[in-house]
Amino acid sequence: MSDANTTTSGVASPANSLVAVAAAASALWVVVEVALRRELAAPMGDLLGSAAGGYVAALALATVGGAAIAAAIGYRGGVTVADWDLALSRRGVFEGVGAVVAYYAFLFAAAVVATVAFGLDPNAATTGGGFDGPRWTLVALFVANGVLGPIAEEVAWRGVVQTAFTEAVGVAAGVAVTAIAFVGKHLVVDLAAPPLRVASLVFLAFAFGVLRHRNGTGSAMVAHVLANTTATALLILG
């Protein structure tokens, strides 16, 4: 990591500067995603002749824009591309796939417990019953939500935010704070979420954080893309 986070006055410590980088990247991602997804969806839908297409286009622009801004903030604060640790090892891929298998096992167990013990609808863990739109929008959704979104989120949240937090406050606190911020981002963007959705977000947020610490951001990307592509495929087929 470079020394760009130090100050000539000596007032701000490197740790405080890195916390500021992580906080700024997190906050601006939320602002950008909320603004673009809520303000661009309708006009993009009119332009593309499909409300579903407008939703997907706004989603793609929001995630790419959020990642670009987070990367720029990180670079100015001393978190460079090299610090993201994108290299993939065999162990990183294996653990990434294993994390997604564990996630679906957890989700199944949580749905059973919610149904049996609390009488909740297990379908409340999802966001709906399918995706309606022209065929091209289904392909676009799969690419945007299944591949592009996860890569962009990992660049920002594990590549920049977790790197900065971990360097500033330590591994355990850095992973935890990043995971909490990541879950909070989804809750703000979604406006609300049922209990099983929150549980799934918490599981994935900590899983991605641990994978990033153990194997690098590339491993977290593998898991995130696999989780989102399977979930998006189920949404489309539902």
Computed over alpha carbons, the radius of gyration is 18 Å
Give the number of DSSP strands.
0
Q: Main beta sheet, described?
A: none
Q: Give helix % range.
A: over 70%
C-alpha termini separation: 45 Å
- State the domain count: 1
Oligomer: single chain
Give the key terms:
mainly alpha; single chain; 80% helix; globular; 238 residues
Could you explain how this protein is built, in words?
This protein is mainly alpha-helical. It has one domain. Helix 2 runs parallel beside helix 5. The termini are far apart. 39% of the residues are buried. About 3% of the residues have low confidence.
List the helices and strands and how they pair.
Blueprint: H1 14-48, H2 51-76, H3 81-84, H4 90-118, H5 135-169, H6 171-190, H7 195-215, H8 217-237
Helix pairs in contact: 1-2, 1-5, 1-6, 2-5, 4-7, 4-8, 5-6, 5-8, 6-7, 7-8
Summarize the structure.
Helices cover 80% and strands 0% of the residues. It is mainly alpha-helical and 238 residues long.
